[in-house]
Structure to design on (181 residues):
């Protein structure tokens, strides 16, 4: 396994840039095969911004032309364990009534964040609310939710990179890695 050291932190690579790029293509094909109508893609910021940027471009190549609007939810703050609380810091501007909505998030762990977002948009009359997550960390589900589209199953480790952070650091890494120390 390759690793790099930044500011004294050793980070082991879990999913390489090439593995992620290949998975974006197949994930977009899976999404396109469900033939979404009047699709609105809603990346849940901040951690999903790089995943969403790559996924929507892969979706274009898969023949989709979604609208995209953003939501900022906070559940973690600058800590490495979940507070259990979900808060809307920035809402979407788009109307979701009678549309197929695809939530895009970085990690599905307890499921509280996605369950919250899903309930919110379903209550506004979306015809369907599905979710695409880059990583699923099994074993922590507290809400009854399943990702409709999932990039990779992730080991039970704190991960960073490809948009994901540890106290806002390491989002720029082009791979997903585990902070060892
Ligand atoms: P949950 O599914 O509501 O527990 O929250 C998942 C959210 O917690 C993700 O969208 C991330 O923002 C954050 N998160 C969970 N595990 C990690 C991790 O290993 N690294 C960085 N953020 C994480
Ligand atoms: Mg998140």
């Amino acid at each position: 396994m390759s690793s790099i050291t930044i500011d004294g932190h050793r980070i082991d690579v879990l999913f390489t840039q090439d593995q992620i790029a290949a998975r974006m293509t197949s994930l977009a094909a899976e999404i396109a095969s469900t033939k979404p109508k009047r699709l609105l893609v809603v990346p849940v910021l901040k951690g999903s911004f790089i995943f969403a940027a790559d996924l929507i471009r892969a979706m274009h190549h898969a023949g989709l032309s979604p609208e995209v609007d953003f939501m900022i939810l906070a559940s973690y703050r600058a800590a490495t364990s979940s507070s259990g609380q979900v808060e809307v810091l920035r809402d979407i501007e788009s109307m979701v009534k009678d549309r197929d909505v695809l939530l895009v998030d970085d990690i599905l762990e307890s499921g509280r964040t996605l369950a919250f977002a899903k309930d919110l948009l379903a209550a506004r009359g979306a015809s369907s609310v599905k979710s695409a997550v880059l990583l699923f960390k099994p074993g922590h589900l507290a809400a009854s939710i399943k990702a409709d589209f999932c990039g990779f199953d992730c080991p039970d480790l704190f991960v960073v990179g490809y948009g994901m952070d540890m106290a806002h650091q390491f989002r720029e890494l082009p791979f997903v890695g585990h902070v060892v120390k």
Remarks:
- The radius of gyration is 16 Å.
- The mean pLDDT is 94.
- The helical segments are 17-33, 49-61, 112-123.
- The first strand starts at residue 3 and ends at 6.
